[in-house]
Automatic annotation (TrEMBL):
E.C. designation(s): 3.6.5.-
Cofactors (names): Mg(2+)
GO cellular component labels: cytoplasm
Phylogenetic lineage: Bacteria, Bacillati, Actinomycetota, Coriobacteriia, Eggerthellales
Name of the top EC class for this enzyme: hydrolase
Residue intervals of the Obg domain: 1-163
Chain residues that bind Mg(2+): S177, T197
Assembly mode: Monomer.
Family: Belongs to the TRAFAC class OBG-HflX-like GTPase superfamily. OBG GTPase family.
CDD domains per UniProt: Obg (cd01898)
Protein name: GTPase Obg
General function of this protein: An essential GTPase which binds GTP, GDP and possibly (p)ppGpp with moderate affinity, with high nucleotide exchange rates and a fairly low GTP hydrolysis rate. Plays a role in control of the cell cycle, stress response, ribosome biogenesis and in those bacteria that undergo differentiation, in morphogenesis control.
HAMAP family, per database record: GTPase_Obg (MF_01454)
Gene that this sequence comes from: obg
Keywords: Coiled coil, Cytoplasm, GTP-binding, Hydrolase, Magnesium, Metal-binding, Nucleotide-binding
Length: 464
C-alpha cells in the first residue's frame, strides 16, 4: 500500500523544575540559596532521510514524545537536559500544523526537500530556574523556584509528495506505463483496460550523462480535478514535479476518442486542479505511431502544440505551456522515438534543476518563519468578562506561565503576577473593566485582581 499522508501528535519533553534549597554545612547554620535549575526538555525533530521512501512507519504509531528534563537539586546542581527525539521522514515530506478538533490543516511548517534537512516540530520546555536566580538586594533568601515549562505539543500532518523530475500524465491507456517501461528499468503492469495503474510508478531514466526520475501516474479523465476517476488522489503528486510529460494516445483508444480533444481535456483538468499546473512546463508526446492511420491526427496535434507553445511564449499565463514547440512522436511498443524523447526530457529537467537551485539559494527558512509566527501567536491572549466581577484570561503563553507556577508558594505567585503584567494582561483586564478585588481565572486557577498602582511597588524588586 502506498502511504503518503499521516497525522501524528508530537510533544517535546517538559522542562524539569528548578530547585528551592539553601546551603547547609556543619559550620553554616543557614546558608544562602543554592537550588539548581531544572534541565530543558528535549525537542521533537523531523529529519529528511533519503533512504526512506514512505511514511509507513507512522501508520500505526501516532504519538511521539521527547525526553523530559530532570529537576534541579541543591548545591546548585542543574537537572539533565532531555534527549531530542528525531523522527526520520522521506525526502519530499511536507509538514503542516493540524488541528484535531476542527480537522483542519494550518500553517506550513516545512517542506523537507534535501537529505538531512531538519525542523523542530515541538520544542521542549525550558527548565525552571532554581532559587539562586531570585536573589535581590532586598530578598536574600528567596523561598521559591520555578516549575519546569510544559513542552509544546500538537498534531502535525506529514505528506509525502512524489519526488519525480518528470511525470507522465494522460488519459487511461494512453501508454504511460508502457513508456516508463521503455525509458527506465521500471516494470509496471501494462494492460489494455483503463486504470491499470493504481499507484504511481517511479523509474530512473538515463540519457547520455544525464539521469532523471520519471513517474507514471494513474490515468486522468474528465472531471479528475473534482475527484472523478482515480487521478485526483495523484494530481497532488505532480504539484512538485518540475516537468509534465503529456502522453496523448493517437489511436483514441477503445472509445474512439479524438486525440486533440483528449489533449484539451487533460490540459483543462490540470488547470482546474491548480493554477500553477496550468502553466507547468510540459513536453507533449504522441504515442502509438506504429498504428496505421494515425498520421492525420498526429499532424493536427503537432500544429496545436506549436500554436500553444507560441501563446505561452507570448505570456498567456493560462495557456497550456509546451516548453518545446515540437510534438514528440513515439511508439512505446516498438521503442521508436523514445531515445529522442528521453534526451529532450533530460535536457529540460537539467535546466529546471539549475533554476530551482538558484531559487533555493534565496528561499526563506520555513521553520524559522513558522517559529516566529507561532511565538507571536503564543503571546496573544483574550480577556472574557464572565459577569459578577469575574474575568477569564485565555492564551497559550499566559496559560503556560500559570501552569509553571508553584501555587503553594506566595512568592512564586507574586512573580507570576509580575510576568502577567509584563505581557500586558493587567492592562487588558483594566480595559475590560476589572477593578481591585475582582476574580481572574486562568486555566484551573483563580486569583484576585490587584491594579497596577497598588501592585507596582510590590513587584518592582522582582524585575529580572
Ligand atoms: N500499438 C501500440 N500499443 C501501445 C503502445 N503503447 C501502449 N500500448 C498499449 O496500450 C494499452 C495501454 O497501455 P498502458 O501502458 O497500460 O497505458 P497507461 O497509460 O499506463 O494506462 P493506465 O495505467 O490505465 O492509465 C496496452 O495494451 C499497451 O500494450 C504503442 O506505442 N503502440
Ligand atoms: Mg498505466
Amino acid at each position: 500500500m502506498f502511504i503518503d499522508k499521516v497525522r501524528i501528535h508530537v510533544k517535546g519533553g517538559d522542562g524539569g523544575a528548578g530547585c528551592m534549597s539553601f546551603r547547609r554545612e556543619a559550620h553554616v547554620p543557614k546558608g544562602g540559596p543554592d537550588g539548581g535549575d531544572g534541565g530543558h526538555g528535549g525537542n521533537v525533530v523531523l529529519e529528511a532521510d533519503a533512504s526512506l521512501s514512505s511514511l509507513i512507519e507512522y501508520r500505526f504509531k501516532h504519538h511521539f514524545k521527547a525526553e523530559r528534563g530532570t529537576h534541579g537539586k541543591g548545591s546548585r546542581m542543574h537537572g539533565a537536559t532531555g534527549e531530542d527525539l528525531v523522527l526520520k521522514v522521506p525526502v519530499g515530506t511536507v509538514v503542516r500544523e493540524y488541528f484535531e478538533d476542527t480537522r483542519e490543516t494550518g500553517e506550513l511548517i516545512a517542506d523537507l526537500t534535501h537529505d538531512g534537512e531538519r525542523v523542530v516540530v515541538a520544542e521542549g520546555g525550558t527548565g525552571g530556574r532554581g532559587n539562586i536566580h531570585f536573589v535581590t538586594s532586598t530578598r536574600r533568601a528567596p523561598a521559591f523556584a520555578e516549575l519546569g515549562e510544559p513542552a509544546q505539543e500538537g498534531w502535525i500532518e506529514l505528506e509525502m509528495k512524489l519526488m519525480a523530475d518528470a511525470a507522465l500524465v494522460g488519459m487511461p491507456s494512453a501508454g504511460k506505463s508502457s513508456l516508463i517501461a521503455k525509458m527506465s528499468a521500471a516494470r509496471p503492469k501494462i494492460a489494455d483496460y483503463p486504470f491499470t495503474t493504481l499507484v504511481p510508478n517511479l523509474g530512473v531514466a538515463r540519457s547520455g550523462d544525464l539521469s532523471f526520475v520519471v513517474a507514471d501516474i494513474p490515468g486522468l479523465i474528465e472531471g479528475a480535478h473534482e475527484g472523478r476517476g482515480l487521478g485526483h488522489e495523484f494530481l497532488r503528486h505532480i504539484e512538485r514535479t518540475a516537468l509534465i510529460v503529456h502522453v496523448v494516445d493517437l489511436t483514441g483508444d477503445w472509445e474512439g476518442r479524438d486525440p486533440l480533444s483528449d489533449y484539451e481535456i487533460i490540459n483543462r483538468e490540470l488547470a482546474l486542479y491548480a493554477d500553477e499546473l496550468a502553466a507547468r512546463p510540459r513536453i507533449v508526446v504522441a504515442n502509438k505511431t506504429d498504428v496505421a492511420g494515425t498520421e492525420e491526427a498526429c499532424e493536427r496535434l503537432a500544429k496545436r502544440v506549436r500554436e500553444d507553445s507560441v501563446a505561452a511564449a507570448d505570456g498567456d499565463e493560462f495557456a497550456p505551456s509546451p516548453v518545446d514547440p515540437k510534438l514528440y512522436r513515439v511508439s512505446a511498443l516498438t521503442g521508436e522515438g523514445v531515445d529522442g524523447l528521453k534526451a529532450a526530457i533530460a535536457r529540460k529537467v537539467n535546466e529546471l534543476r539549475e533554476a530551482a537551485r538558484e531559487a533555493a539559494a534565496t528561499e526563506v527558512q520555513y521553520g524559522q518563519v513558522w517559529e516566529h509566527r507561532r511565538a507571536e501567536r503564543d503571546k496573544r491572549f483574550s480577556v472574557t468578562p464572565l459577569g459578577g466581577g469575574v474575568f477569564r484570561v485565555t492564551g497559550p503563553q499566559v496559560e503556560r506561565m500559570v501552569v509553571q507556577t508553584d501555587w503553594e508558594n506566595e512568592e512564586a505567585i507574586a512573580f507570576l503576577q509580575h510576568r502577567l503584567k509584563r505581557l500586558g494582561v493587567e492592562a487588558a483586564l483594566e480595559r475590560a473593566g476589572a477593578v481591585d478585588g475582582d476574580e481572574i481565572r486562568i486555566v484551573g486557577r483563580a486569583f484576585e485582581f490587584e491594579s497596577a498602582r497598588t501592585s507596582e511597588d510590590a513587584f518592582r524588586e522582582l524585575d529580572l
